[in-house]
Amino acid sequence: METESPHEEFKVKRKRSLQSPDLASPISHCICVTSPEGKTIINPRYEILSTIYDQPASPSRILLVKDTETDAILILKQLLKCKILSHAQNISALREIEIHQSIRHLNIVTFYDSGETEDAYNLLLEYLPGYLYFTDRIEVNNKPFNLKPDGGVQKLKSFSYDVIQGLEYLHSQGIIHLDLKPGNLLLYTDVDEDEYPLVKICDFGLSRKVDETGYALIEKKCGTDKYVPPEVNDGARISPAADMWSLGLLLHNLAVGYTPHAMKWTPGQPIPFHKRHWPKYEGTGLKEFIEACLRLKPEERITSRDALLHPWLSFN
């Protein structure tokens, strides 16, 4: 269930996007079929166009494919069995499929189908042309939002709202994403001229479901170093508050091009907001929101539900 926000401007901006055909009328897909020889294979209906990601150390291979029946462009994510080297990694692959296929939300990359072949677990997903926007902007070109004349405040607010909406939905379903970072945020750009692009969360490879206590056990420390919460360690029990920590660091990075760690910040200490980098955000509530995300104790962090009501998400 989506939390109702008092900031009606965002609802107006998303009114038409909420009726996106991608969510309203999903195409029927079948990623795997049985060959004449009786083997399960990738459906020939999907033509491979290019390889987007394939690294030696990663079991994931990302392919751009075309549905030859509808001309739709899609993503085929393969979890290669030859690179899944342990029982724990195999459980993780199956968990990713189980979690992603169970969720459906405007701010989550759409899952269409999955299937297992001899050499891989296969996921058929929505393709978003703006998949490199945040990675290129921050990690490649170092163009944070504060370089814009107006600080990109309204656009950053809109993007923040999208991510928080996605997180609030995940958390309401008992899911912790556990790897929130620029590379796992994609842009849906097929919107009207007066709308900002829509941000969608992807990649549930590290995600966990909480138990009846509201916590999830992680066997090993995981995540992307720059965004890993302090409580995420071997054998730790974590809560959705872990995602809020990563969100705070993510917004800090988007706003000024670096995380507080670059200023020799230690978690639990005051965040060093250097004045020369933050004047465009004075009075917006962004700094206060980041502080609320980066409380050292997870139980003291702002929740995704409360985040939707924070002054940072106001256009005023």
TrEMBL record:
Segments forming domain Protein kinase: 46-313
Domain of life: Eukaryota
InterPro entries: Kinase-like_dom_sf, Prot_kinase_dom, Ser/Thr_kinase_AS
MF terms (GO), sorted A to Z: ATP binding; protein kinase activity
Alphabetized Pfam families for the sequence: Pkinase
Annotated SMART domains: S_TKc (SM00220)
Full protein name: Protein kinase domain-containing protein
Organism: Blepharisma stoltei
Lineage: Eukaryota, Sar, Alveolata, Ciliophora, Postciliodesmatophora
